[in-house]
Design a protein that fits this description.
The complex is a heterodimer. Chain A has helices spanning 47-54, 78-82, 101-111, 116-129, 145-157, 175-191, 203-206, 226-231, 233-238, 245-255, 267-282, and strands at residues 4-12, 22-31, 36-40, 62-67, 70-71, 85-88, 163-167, 195-199, 211-216, 219-224. Chain A is an alpha/beta fold. Chain A is globular. Chain B is mainly alpha-helical. Helix content of chain B is 69%, strand content 3%. In chain B, helix 2 (22-38) runs parallel beside helix 10 (243-265), helix 3 runs parallel beside helix 6 and helix 7 crosses helix 8 (153-183). Chain B is flat. Chain B has 10 helices and 2 strands, in the order αααααββααααα. Chain B has 2 domains: 1-130 and 241-272, no CATH class; 153-240, no CATH class. The A-B interface holds A 52, 55, 57, 79, 82-83, 86-87, 89, 91, 93-100, 102-103, 106-116, 119-120, 123, 137-141, 152, 155-156, 159 and B 10, 12, 131-133, 161-162, 164-165, 168-169, 172, 213-214, 217-218, 220-228, 232-238. The structure holds adenosine-5'-triphosphate and magnesium ion. Adenosine-5'-triphosphate is lined by residues 13, 23, 41, 43-49 of chain A.
């Protein structure tokens, strides 16, 4: 069975009222342990809602979300769900609780009643994993955005969750902070085998994932590898979605009548392809 | 800039004061304040001030930062101590109409000024050397007996942790909003008091809106990290009363003995 399973999930924010507007219309989605999934979609299509459903912050109006086999709607086991799925939000300023970095990272394990020595070990390890160990005694408000966001991620790592859901973690960061955070996320997935669900509007981040899920108005439109999803540029454009820059370039050149051998996703791939292409042309 | 205020901030450092048990530090600040206010003559006042000065020295935090913490209250000090000059009893040294300066008034003036300044410095030693979490932890522990009476001590301590954590963030935000409103032509530095208060409204409203948004996010983040009240919670840093703490406590007791002796043996000065 998959690690996270959404079965026919429907959701509306004010379900009791008469004119309740449904945000999710029967979503089916399974995420396996160790996967790196990027969740895409235009503003207001229900991505953040999905994120909060994954760790039981929200409960489906109809249907079910299972995390490691546990139904998130059962009140008694909610802590067990959150112990497995951590959530990182967009604004790093608003999710740090304590006035000192290491104490903030310790917040999660403290809530779980972990023994002090073990908390210390986890905090040190988590801070090293996000490369923030030297800053352990700093005040969060004196850090850069990217650093704050990495501390927030460390706070989840210290809880030893199997999965981290990140809701636009790089939206408020500059390019450098964005790279820092993306590298951290990729490393966690690769080295620690942590399942990652990354919600983002940056397509260049999405291509780094192993799987891309595209949502639209509370439904899942596409689900596949980045190459499968981004190769259909026209389909994405029809749904107001961007494509990675390299793909966009290739798409426009193709539209202008230039026959390219393939659709590149990343910059490096794009450069390589053009090299090969130009060599072919000159010969 | 509002965010320049150092009063109540924490400065990490490796020092005896930073290592000391926060519960003891709180008690010692209260103790120092009591000394300041009980001091009846210059010798005992000087002892109390020296005691606080020793704490400052042991904290290994630059004097400059302590002086900066005094800045916001300088006006208050000047105002109250000058007022006291004219309230003395006894032979006037100088008189003009109803304004009478007496030796007694001058002494009181010095006492008041020294007391307020030393009081701020003493509490700065506490806040500069104690992380907000340690501070609230210590308060939580000291007030623990009250939770038996149904007082929500854990919740109160958590509120304080969060408040202390967000003070710098909100101060920065206030600066930003003020700058933004000034850029739109808002005038906050001139006009009558009523006008100036009215000029603050466009600053306060965005500040409140953003504070609420932050609060929602924070609640989500805290719940996601399994926060469910104080029950079953552990702490990474358990407070421990070590040998150096006992030494500091003993030294403080000795200071108390000297203080009582000075206070009783030498005659009291200033306003009774
Ligand atoms: N707390 C709430 N109460 C009522 N409606 C809400 C609430 N939060 C979101 N919605 C609505 O639910 C829909 C989906 O919102 P959601 O935040 O999941 O979108 P999103 O895909 O995360 O968008 P974005 O890319 O802007 O973050 C939106 O139409 C929004 O107006
Ligand atoms: Mg969102």
């Amino acid at each position: 069975m998959s690690f996270i399973q959404a079965q026919q999930v429907r959701f509306s924010y004010d379900a009791e009222t008469v004119d309740a507007r449904e945000v999710l219309h029967g979503v089916d989605l399974s995420i396996e342990e160790g996967e790196f999934v990027a969740l895409l979609g235009h503003n207001g299509c229900g991505k953040s809602t999905m994120a909060k459903l994954f760790n039981g912050m929200l409960i489906p109006t109809a249907g079910k979300v299972l995390v490691g086999g546990i139904d998130t709607s059962v009140e008694e086991t909610q802590l067990d769900v959150r112990r497995q799925v951590g959530l990182v939000l967009q604004n790093p300023d608003n999710q740090l609780v304590a006035g000192v970095v290491e104490e903030d990272v310790a917040f999660g394990p403290e809530n779980l009643g972990v023994e002090p020595r073990e908390i210390r070990r986890r905090v040190d390890e988590a801070l090293k994993a996000v490369d923030m160990y030297e800053y352990r005694e700093h005040a969060p408000h004196k850090l850069s955005g990217g650093q704050k966001q990495r501390v927030a991620i460390a706070g989840i790592i210290a809880m030893e969750t199997k999965c981290i859901v990140l809701d636009e973690p790089t939206a408020m960061l500059d390019p450098r902070g964005r790279t820092e955070v993306m590298e951290t996320i990729r490393r966690l997935n690769r080295e620690k085998g942590i399942t990652i669900v990354l919600i983002t509007h940056y397509m260049d981040e999405a291509v780094q994932a192993g799987r891309v899920v595209v949502m639209d108005e509370g439904n899942i439109l596409r689900d596949g590898t980045p190459r499968e999803v981004f190769s259909d540029v026209e389909f994405l454009k029809r749904h107001d979605l961007d494509v990675p820059q390299a793909t966009e370039l290739a798409y426009r050149l193709t539209a202008a009548g230039i026959k390219l051998p393939e659709m590149p996703l990343g910059v490096e791939e794009c450069v390589k392809m053009f090299r090969r292409y130009l060599r072919m042309e000159t010969h | 800039m509002i965010s320049d205020i150092t009063l109540g901030q924490y400065f990490p450092q490796k020092s005896l004061m930073h290592r000391a048990d926060p519960r003891m530090k709180i008690c010692l600040v209260i103790y120092a304040i009591v000394l300041l206010f009980v001091a009846g003559n210059f010798a005992s006042l000087a002892l109390a001030v020296a005691y606080i000065g020793l704490g400052m020295a042991l904290s290994r935090i630059p004097l400059k930062l302590y002086l900066k913490s005094l800045k916001p209250i300088l006006f208050l000090v000047a105002f109250t101590s000058v007022l006291n000059i004219f309230y003395g009893t006894g032979e006037p040294l100088w008189q003009w109409g109803i304004l009478r300066v007496t030796a007694n008034g001058l002494i009181t003036c010095v006492f008041v000024a020294v007391r307020i300044v030393a009081l701020i410095l003493a509490s700065s030693v506490l806040t500069f050397t104690t992380s907000p979490t340690q501070l609230t932890d210590a308060i939580e522990r000291l007030l623990k007996p009250l939770s038996k009476l149904g007082v929500p001590i854990h919740e109160f301590a958590m509120m304080m942790t969060i408040a202390l954590r967000f003070v710098p963030t909100l101060l920065e935000e206030t600066d930003k909003i003020m700058a933004a409103q000034k850029a739109r032509g808002a005038d906050m530095e001139s006009g009558s008091l009523a006008q100036r208060i009215r000029a603050l409204v466009p600053v306060l409203i965005p500040l409140f809106v953003s504070a609420f948004r932050r609060a929602f996010d924070l609640a989500t983040a805290m719940e996601s990290r399994c926060y469910h009240g104080g029950e079953g919670r552990t702490k990474m840093k358990s407070l421990s009363f070590g040998r150096s703490d006992w030494m500091v406590a003993a030294a403080s007791l000795a200071a108390l003995a000297a203080f009582v002796a000075l206070n009783l043996l030498l005659p009291a000065v200033g306003r009774p």
